[in-house]
Amino acid sequence: FKWFCKPIISLYNNKAMNNILLVTLFILFAGCSQKQYFTPNKDSIVGEVEFDGKLESPISKSNKNGALLSDGTLIAKDGIYDINLKENYSFLNIIGDLILVGDYETNTLSILNKDGKELKSFTFEYMPISASLRDNVLAVVLSDNSFVLWDIDVNEKLFSSNNATSYAINSKVASPLFIDDAVVFPAFDGKVVVINLNNFQILHTIALGN
Prior knowledge:
By secondary structure, the chain is of the alpha+beta class.
């Protein structure tokens, strides 16, 4: 009896599987045939953008936050600014209406307005490579792979930390990131360090890799 029933059950199961497969393929192809693509209404398109593929001046320096042209023009995520930086200056970040730039001859970080006027400046032991600002707290990563938190109102160091030496730095370096009551520092040796802004203690050190 088992010898007789087994092939029948197997055949039945195969037919059931075939039916399921056919239904699945039907739904799949039916869904693909009804796929719709987004086509904007002409009335919803506002303004025009003209670009001939060329910049008025070549890019001299760039990072994740923007590019500085050789004629002093800054191209950032939120617009284009004519700040006329000297050759030894480099753009670091733009925070609201403030622009952070670094002077590689004097290891100075300057805060400018969007007209290029210097509002404040701070000198460090090593070159500022990346920086961010929230309220009165300036977070800076220096070229020796150290971190600094600086109070720009009273011109005073709040926190500093040294890390392993890194011998190569490229333009892909990220800026410090403020999150709630903490600041996240990216290190050049592949680590991420989280600092508590309430007591300026290290909360976490995460190794991501080079």
